[in-house]
Write a structure and sequence with these properties.
The protein is α/β, with parallel strands linked by helices. 31% of the residues lie in helices and 22% in strands. The protein has 5 domains: 3-111 and 243-303, FAD/NAD(P)-binding domain; 125-239, FAD/NAD(P)-binding domain (3-Layer(bba) Sandwich); 491-547, no CATH class; 550-631, Alpha-Beta Complex (Sulfite Reductase Hemoprotein, domain 2), CATH 3.90.480.10; 634-786, Sulfite Reductase Hemoprotein, domain 1 (2-Layer Sandwich).
Length: 815
């Protein structure tokens, strides 16, 4: 009989525990989760990149709604548990929801410590623990001003760097002489302080806060013990955490500093377990993720009849501040029975220190160059005797044996259980097995399937080396390529930084993102132009010189230097008046070829450049606008005759196609976008090979996307079903906007879908009603600045030099 498992808390530890549990036995329990936060599970280690703008909330989601549904997990969001009744074996939420359990897991995490300074309860005094805290800081950062961060530890420095990246002035106050004194020795602390100051952040050490000042109930500054007053609009307290165990204590479960657990993660009640930051195990409470993941694996085993034990953990620390490489593990305090090996390179800003006891590493500090951190950590955890490699140990794994080895060989030599990704607790064997079994070939695929390198990114180099060792010559790291040789940044990073840094011109992008060339190239300029048009509608003015020739002249150049002109025909419909106007233009300008296109339009081929303005003028007088057959944007909406004429038609496919095209024309997209609407499943308009297609059925509209019928042949994926035309339009527009915001320049929609994931796209469009409506509204707003006929504008004189000859040559009369 399936047992009931109730979990209180939905952080990283219980999330990882469930992954292991389902691997052991996916049918062992009916799982119910009560999450006090109003959202799904996310990676808290990545809050700092969210604060700085390097990532979004969506980027750090660990388990989305679809994951819980697929694993038959009942997730109650915003449901704080207020009572555990061990006699009845029930839990009760704040809203009065009662759930019974056979086994209970408490994973309530920790609470940030609040210094009881006068003024600590003022508006603007914040902590840094969850996504709501990040949201509060981002709101405060909009007003700029100064942020004071109390605490120069890991979280405090990450908060300081994030707020600085958001445009605030930042001061860090730290009680001790050096930053991160619990993880770093004074030498590394000095280097870290120098790096933080170089980022424009003020650092004050050996200072003590006395009072938080306020005005009208809100923070206005802070006073130090020595009388110094610092103006501030917000104060962040980042001075430590305490296990959150009051719920367990109220239920008479044994607690001390945290919830007391044995090696099986069992509490004083045999049917109640605990894991994560809320527990105390053998006198230790843990605040870093690696031991939490070890606890999770042990608990999953034991919940499925195993006999695993958690015997404690050694932790390693990384700082998630862009441009600061730091790694620390173990005990580096000085003592008579310890020795040390130190390497300093002042020119490169590198400092390494190993603390040894009885020829074993017990502590390691690295600053500036941290590649060997996981190797040193592995030697430390295993208690490896290093006497035979002592002379070269500080130089790292690649130098063992007396000479520098190929780094690939060093990675290959790592044991299977060597930790590669500390953020997610991923060891070498997990990555290698995934690459081999799932035939993974790109870094993005490895990130997707294993989570390695998907968080802070500091292990990316190791993961790529491991891929190279595993795949050999078949591994092509260029698949995750820079936009062009002008930059080392990829498309995702460029798009993200344009938004974070509010860059609104191509020169600003190139300056702030440190382009290697003065003006860019033919590859990056069109991409940057598109990203700026897409991200800043109404603020960025389209730079037509950064477009390819077809988009500059709004016609397709042919092999003989003439152009083709394709007017828009809404949904493929036309009239006798329109056909006569086209015929008149063909005769007037002696256009040599006229062709009906596959997109149900008419193409006039062989138009001379000097005739383009005249052709457009006459077509405009007849009511035509540009068909944008040249554009990286909406081209056609192909339709069948639908219910108006066809005896099989279920809906007005022609009318809906016209509505879509009139709503969406003029919009720019990463690559060309072709749509189709079929009036019945017979699919006469070939909707199931388009970028976006609609199949009309009796009950409404089946929406498809990500098809291809060019160099690649691919059927569409089903997005979902809409019961009304309005709903279908909302889905289509939101999908298009999501593609506009996430697609790489020149990346067709089917390639974007493969990269991002069809299920992820479905989730964002179908499951997130608010997100979908926001996407729809952003598209609507952008159309205010997009729906201008470029032919009419050029006829009126815009960019007229583009259509004027550089010179006119003719015969001159002889004197």
């Amino acid at each position: 009989m399936t047992q009931k498992l109730v979990i209180i808390g939905n952080g990283m530890a219980p999330g990882r525990m469930l992954e292991h549990l389902f691997e052991e036995d996916a049918t062992a329990y009916d799982v119910t989760i009560f999450n006090a936060e109003p959202r799904v599970n996310y990676n808290r280690l990545m809050l700092s990149p969210v604060l700085s703008g390097e990532k979004t909330y969506e980027d750090i989601i660990t388990h989305d709604d679809a994951w819980y549904e697929a694993n038959n997990v009942t997730l109650l969001k915003g449901a704080k548990i207020t009572e555990i009744d061990r006699n009845l074996k029930t839990v009760t939420s704040e809203a009065g929801v009662v759930a019974s359990y056979d086994k209970l897991v408490i994973a309530t995490g920790s609470n940030p410590f609040i210094i009881p300074l006068p003024g600590h309860d003022l508006d603007g005094v914040l902590v840094y623990r969850d996504l709501d805290d990040v949201g509060a800081m981002l709101t405060a950062a909009k007003s700029k001003g100064r942020a004071v961060v109390i605490g120069g530890g890991l979280l405090g420095l990450e908060a300081a760097a994030g707020l600085k990246a958001r445009g605030m002035d930042v001061t860090v106050l730290h009680l001790m002489p050096t930053l991160m004194e619990r993880q770093l020795d004074p030498a590394a602390g000095y280097l870290l302080e120098k790096a933080i100051k170089d980022k424009g952040i003020e650092v004050l050490t050996e200072v003590n806060s006395k009072e938080i000042l306020g005005k009208d109930g809100r923070v206005s500054g802070i006073t130090l013990d020595d009388g110094t007053v610092i103006d501030a609009s917000i104060v962040i307290m980042a001075v430590g955490i305490r296990p959150s165990f009051s719920l367990a204590k109220d239920a008479d479960i044994d607690c001390n500093r945290g919830i007391l657990v044995d090696d099986k993660m069992q509490t004083s009640d045999p049917d109640v377990y605990a894991l994560g930051e809320c527990v105390e195990h053998r006198g230790d409470c843990y605040g870093l993720v690696a031991p939490l993941y070890e606890m999770a694996k042990v608990l999953a085993k034991n919940l499925t009849g195993g006999n695993a034990e958690f015997t404690g953990s050694v932790t390693a620390t990384k700082l998630k501040v862009t441009g600061v490489d730091l790694y620390s593990a173990g005990d580096f305090a000085e003592a008579d029975d310890r020795e040390e090996i130190v390497l300093r390179d002042a020119a490169q800003g590198i400092y390494k220190r190993l603390v040894l006891k009885e020829n074993r590493i017990i502590g390691a500090v690295q600053y500036g160059e941290t590649t060997d951190g996981p190797w040193f950590f592995d030697l430390l955890k295993k208690g490896t005797d290093i006497s035979e490699m002592r002379d070269s140990l500080i130089f790292g794994q690649a130098y063992q044996g007396g000479a520098s080895l190929d780094p690939m060989q060093a990675v290959a030599a790592l044991p299977d259980d060597a930790e590669i990704c500390g953020c997610n607790g991923i060891c070498k064997s997990v990555i290698v097995t995934a690459i081999t079994d799932k035939k993974l070939n790109t870094l993005d695929e490895v990130r997707s399937h294993t989570k390695a390198s998907a968080s802070c990114g500091t292990c990316t180099g190791l993961v790529e080396q491991l891929m190279s060792v595993t795949l050999g010559d078949t591994y092509d790291p260029s698949k995750v390529a820079a936009v062009c040789p002008c930059t080392d940044l990829g498309h995702d990073d460029v798009r993200r930084l344009i938004q974070v840094k509010s860059l609104k011109s191509i020169p600003a992008v190139m300056q702030e993102l440190e382009w290697k060339t003065s003006c860019g190239c033919a590859k990056c300029r069109p991409a940057l132009n598109y990203y700026l048009v897409s991200d800043w509608p109404g603020e960025y003015e389209d730079d037509y010189q950064s477009r390819y020739i077809n988009e500059r002249v709004h016609a397709n150049i042919q092999k003989d230097g003439t152009y083709s002109v394709v007017p828009r025909m809404w949904g493929g419909m036309t009239s006798s008046d329109e056909l006569r106007a086209i015929a008149d233009v063909v005769d007037k300008f002696d256009i040599p070829a006229v062709k009906v296109t596959g997109g149900q339009r008419i193409d006039m081929l062989g138009v001379k450049k000097e005739d383009l303005l005249g052709v457009w003028s006459d077509l405009g007088d007849a009511g035509f606008v540009s068909g944008q057959a040249y554009a990286k944007g909406l081209r056609t909406v192909k339709t069948c005759v639908g219910s108006d004429w066809c005896r099989f038609g279920t809906q007005d496919s022609t009318g809906f196609g016209i509505r879509i095209e009139k709503f969406m024309w003029g919009s720019w997209t990463p690559a060309k976008l072709k749509l189709a609407v079929s009036g019945c499943p017979r699919n006469c308009s070939e909707a199931t090979c388009k970028d976006i297609g609609v199949i009309c059925v009796d009950s409404g509209y089946d929406i498809h996307f990500a098809g291809a019928a060019g160099l690649d042949i691919k059927g569409t994926e089903l997005l979902g079903h809409a019961s009304s035309e309005d709903e279908a339009l909302e889905y289509i527009v939101a999908l298009t906007q999501l593609y506009r915001e996430q697609g790489h320049y020149l990346e067709r929609i089917y390639k974007w879908a493969k990269r991002v994931g069809v299920d992820e796209i479905r989730s964002q469009i179908l499951d997130d009603d608010i997100g979908r409506k926001n996407l729809y509204q952003r598209f609507v707003y952008s159309q205010k600045f997009a729906q201008h006929d470029p032919w009419s504008e050029r006829v009126s004189g815009k960019d007229k030099h583009e259509f004027n000859p550089l010179a006119i040559f003719g015969q001159e009369a002889a004197e």
